[in-house]
Amino acid sequence: MVDLEDERRRVDWREVMHRIAAGGPLRTILAMALALVIGILFIVFANADVQRTLGYFFAQPGDFFAAAGKAIADAGTALFNGSIYNTKAKDPVAGFRPLTETLRFSGPLIAAGLGVALTFRAGLFNIGGQGQMLMAAAWSSFAASQIHLPYGIHLIVAMLFGFAGAALWGWIAGFLKAKTGAHEVIVTIMLNYIALSIVTYLMRTPILHDMSKGNNPQTLPPDATAVFPKILGDDYQLRLSFILCILAVVVYWWLMRRSALGFRLRMVGLNPDAARAAGINVERTWIIAMVVSALFLGLAGLNQAIARDGNFNQHVDEGIGFDGITVALLGNSSPIGVMFAGMLFGAFKAASPAMQSADVSPDILGILQALIVLFIATPPLIRAIFRLPEPREITDVGTRRKPQLEQGSAS
Amino acid sequence: MKLELRGITKRFGSLVANDGIDLVVESGQIHALLGENGAGKSTLMNVLFGLYQPDEGEILLDDVPRRFRGPGEAMAAGIGMVHQHFMLIPVFTVAENVMLGHEPTRAGGVLDLPAARRLVREISERFGFDLDPDARVEDLPVGVQQRVEIVKALSRDARVLVLDEPTAVLTPQETDELMETMRRLAGSGTSIVFITHKLREVKAVADTITVIRLGRVVGEAPPTASTAELATMMVGRDVELTVHKDPPRLGAEAFVVDGLTLFGAGGVRLLDDLSFSVRGGEVLAVAGVQGNGQTELAEVIVGLRSKASGSIRLDGEELLGRSVRHVLAAGVGFVPEDRKADGLVAEFSLAENIMLDRSYGPPFAHWYGIDFRARDAVAERAVEDFDIRTQGIGAPVGRLSGGNQQKVVIARELERDLKLLLASQPTRGVDVGSIEFIHERIVEVRDSGVPVLIISTELDEVMALADRIAVMYRGAIIDIVPADTPRERLGQLMAGVVA
Questions:
Q1: Per-residue pLDDT reduced to its tens digit, A187-197
Q2: CA dist B461 to A160, A305, B172, B285, Å?
Q3: B3-235 is classed in which CATH architecture?
Q4: Is the Cβ pair B370, A260 closer than 8 Å?
Q5: Angstroms from A8 CA to nearest CA on chain B
Q6: Hey, what CATH topology would domain B240-331+417-499 get?
Q7: Tens of pLDDT along A58-102?
């Protein structure tokens, strides 16, 4: 009996290691830690003082370490001051501004991440976020500037326009895949170009543009009635759209974990043949997945277009459609994961100006972001670096099938 | 070459797959490794092949201890393995597949395809295989593909050949041919480890039988041991190889197929004017060598193929041309022939798989989402009623053994209100204990007055279950005969001999 107990303890530890290697939060944390280490190296060696001390490193190594320490500390302080609480601010109201900026930037990243994550779960890859966001932005901008309605209704109408534009763009991609077998990656990339061209064109016509303001593509400024209101007063830029993005996390959770539609999406993603034999119209499910995904990206587009007072140009998407891919990967396509991943990248964005003034190139944050995803996307690399065991295979694949446990010993 | 395994132990987390297994395979011997699905046979062979490292124990070749860090080292030492699922590249030719991994080259690294062709011809001739080195593997029947695997192993001078469930995918004729091949190989000095759970094959071909149960060797037996003795050792209890069933209480002609014809690519007649009917309370079993249209028949009935002509009526309602969803909703229970490909989502939990084909509407799907409690209750009941060995209804179904996976599929389909049960290969790759259990459930469905259509290439299964037997040959039903038709007559019909 004692032996058995002992055995069990040892075995449980192996279980834990297996789980780490197979994915999950710990691997994500390891990946982030590793990315951080490399990011710090970049910060250190890109620093002017450090480079100078390297010149006489063997004479006075202490200078080098002092300079390196200072570079790291400065960067860390800047990151904190820029994304969470500004310790140099005159009053607490200004002090908390970085935190609200982090949230503001994270909103569209979360929404876009959810959209991409949904297609991952359905066995698809929507990299047409840019096009879908641009369509949402253009359509909502039209409703916000060319239609005039009272407070409340106007915003809702503008949102519906945006969602309709994004959904249409997602539907085209899904429809083409379902009917012609075209690969959704190719289709969505092409639709990005088409959307960019269409939107740029519209921004030079009276449909979206004030022709008296020259020929540069620009939208008309939206009516005040059609803009997401600020939710923390005029001191902060955080708007109602952020709440919608958090709501989107809940919607995504319900959709994928609770609803029958999400069940079918996941089924089609994991085994389309079994789905077909179970009476599911796989092609129609693809179309639904692309449309619902586009709706999430549409929310990201609305965040960019009408969560501001002014007008915008054709670069309003700011590449968030692509950032959504990294957010979805980092978040492992889970609702909570995507939310935190979006907030992390949002913090990076918010901290960028502060980092720059602390003499840290904002590109470092881009490198950090890319490294995290690189390490997440390459589990074997992480396993090798941290000497984690191979994950246990879950699926039954031929002769590598794992033996069956007797019921008695399972409990 | 003499192969010896001493005290091999392999653990996966908390479960012990192999527990101190000893095995001695003498040179030129066919040694059968007999055991139920999940007994640990495949794990043992993967240890031998270097795919897994044993936690304890050692491997000896000709009395020399060896340690293989991967299949490459095992192959170099003279161990060849034919996996249950072939490791062939479908679009490559036979010769290309055989040379894959140790390609002969000429000056400048140019592939020496003629040498590979010669090698294939030479080995084929030596063992009497009829193999065209230039045939594309995907165009070959399964039995021939398996021969390519064997030639591949032999081309690497394998002197110990492991065959993992080699007959699981073969037709009866192909099985006989394989056994012939095995004897010839053993005659030429190759040691063969024959992994299987089919008793009759073991008795027909093995020199020695080792029975494994729950990761342990439970005993050795000579091939003269009776089937019943072997079965008892395997499952640990007496197994009945036949199903008890009363004479059918026939109802109305519920399921009627009339003039069903299907053309494949290039105008091939896949289904040729099929007409038959199944009455309530009756089992009609479709027998035939695999590839004579049975797969297509099931696909057309269930709606996976829609471009057929003719008619399929269930209780008067036309099903041909309707979607799978509609056909299932009309009360057709469908057990697909390949559970892994079409019947289950391996990553999904048992409970999720239980509701796989019922995600539209009650009892599981509602406007507010899935009713997990209702779903889990059904899953728990299925585990209980079907004695499914699982760590719980939340465990991924891919972790279950083949027999238990099949029980999940059967349980799911029988859970619905059925007007027709259509089961393709209901016990393929399933252990003896589960076969009996599944057969009993199918007979219960019949006795409740539901028409049952079984499609099976296992003659034993057909004869055990059927009230009438329809034999398919080249897409047509060549004859429908009573269940007590002699085996020889059925064999003739399956070969297309009518008179």
A1: 999 999 999 99
A2: 60, 66, 13, 9
A3: 3-Layer(aba) Sandwich (3.40)
A4: yes
A5: 7
A6: Rossmann fold (3.40.50)
A7: 888 889 999 999 999 999 999 999 999 999 888 999 999 999 999
